[in-house]
Amino acid sequence: METDHSIEDFREKRAELKEFKDMDREAVDYIGKEFRDLVSQETLEKMRSLPSEFKSHEELARAYSKETGKAASEDLEGFSKGLEIPAQICSDHKQTINETILHERLHQASDHEGDERLRSLSEGIPQALTERMQAGVSFGDFYLSETQAAKELMKEGGDTAVEKLYFQNDTQELRAALAKDAQPDLHLQQFKKNFR
Q1: CA–CA distance, 86 with 92 (Å, rounded to integer)
Q2: Which secondary-structure segment (H or E) carries 79?
Q3: How far apart are CA 178 and CA 169, in angstroms?
Q4: CA-wise closest residue to 136 among 144, 127, 145
């Protein structure tokens, strides 16, 4: 027999899930507006037709292990595999859920080959873009060194040049920017080696 307490818990969880799904739709729309010249309408439509899934930390860890064959780290908040599966988001940490949604949806909006070219910055670029979309704020300690390196690359190469590579695999503008005399930053030097 259900109690009033269990019915209330069910209603709260249902309202929470609706809120998360609304945040997910808004994130896709926001990405579409923010990067309208870089992310195709076709990609955005695929993202809209593949809503994110919200899971407890334990469920997320199991899904990650199933998809990757690897154990999930304790601090895993989400993951995605392009547009092959819905983005998987941890629903246990409400203070970071919007940030996680944006980050994973930016992964889905990226060009696979462009993301591959970025190698060690493949987490830093979406996190730097997420923070920018959140007015420079992060509510968690996500990919700190990778994000700092991505921000330095964006400063040196230009936001648009990095975004063109990330979203469209267009290297032309970033190659031109990196060919100029650059500040001797270890991350950028390594990136230049990998990029050429």
Answers
A1: 18
A2: strand 78-79
A3: 16
A4: 127
Which run of H or of E encompasses 53?
strand 53-55
Q: What DSSP character marks residue 88?
A: E
For 57-63, the CB contacts below 8 A with 24+ separation are 57/90, 57/92, 60/88, 60/89, 60/90, 63/88
Of 163, 157, 74, the closest CA to residue 125 belongs to 163
Q: Rounded to an integer, what distance in angstroms lies between the CA atom of residue 10 and that of residue 33? A: 35
What residues pair up with 81 in beta bridges, in sequence order? 83
What stretches in the chain show pLDDT beneath 50?
1, 184, 187, 196
pLDDT tens digits for range 47-94: 999 999 999 999 999 999 999 999 999 999 999 999 999 999 999 999
Instruction: Please report the pLDDT score of residue 178 as a whole number.
Output: 83
DSSP state of 70: S
* pLDDT number for residue 13: 79
- In this structure, are residues 152 and 120 in contact, taking their beta carbons and an 8 Å threshold? no
pLDDT score, position 59:
97
Half-sphere exposure of 96 (CA within 13 A, CB side): 17
In this prediction the pTM is: 0.88
